[in-house]
Amino acid sequence: MAVLALAAGWRGDPETRSLLVDLAGDGDATYVRATAVRTLGAGWRDAPGTVALLHDRAEHDPEHCVRTAAVQALVMHRRTPDTAVLLRRLATDDPYAHLRAHAVHHLAAGWRDDPETGALLRRIVAGPADDISRIAAIRALAGGWRDDPATEALLRERAADESFWGLQRVAVESLAERWPYDPEIQALAARLADD
After folding, report:
1. First CA to last CA distance, the chain
2. How far is the CA of 139 from the CAs of 17, 51, 136, 155, 178, in angstroms?
3. What is the SS3 assignment for 167?
4. What was the pLDDT predicted at 3?
5. Can you give the pTM of this predicted structure?
C-alpha cells in the first residue's frame, strides 16, 4: 500500500520514480517489488530506462509474481518487437508454467499478424511443454488462427489424443465451436461427454 500511496501522492516528484526503480530491483519483499514494477509500468512507462527495467524484471527476477507483473506492465500500453522476443522466450523457457501460459496469451493477443507467433503456438501444442501452456496455446490458436489448415490439423490430432484429458477436451471444444456439424467432431464430443 505504501508504494501505491507514494506513487499517487508524489508522482510529480522526480525522486518518486527513482525510489520505485530501487524498490523494483532490490529487497526480499516480493510483493513490494511486484507493486513497484506494476506502478512503474502504469505511471512511468515512457520514462527513460523503464522499459529496460521491466524487461529485466520479466526475465531475471527470481519470483514468478514479479516476472508476471513486469510482463503485464510491458504489454499494457505499447507493443514492441523486443517485447515479442521476450514473450517468445518466456512462453517456452520460463520455469513457471502459469507465466509461460500468460506469455502465450499476450503473444496471441498482441502479435497475431507475426508469422512466428502462430508457428510458436503450434510448436508449444505439439511439443513436450507442460499442459497449462499447451492448453493456453490451443485456446490462442483456436481464437486467432482458426482458419489456418495447420491449426485445424493440430487441433484434430490433439482431440484424438487421449493421453491428457484436459488438453483433449479443450481441443474438442475448440473444434466444436468452429465446426459444430462435423460428424467426427460430434462423435469426439459425445465420447468425452460420456466419460
Report:
1. 48
2. 38, 29, 5, 10, 12
3. helix
4. 56
5. 0.86
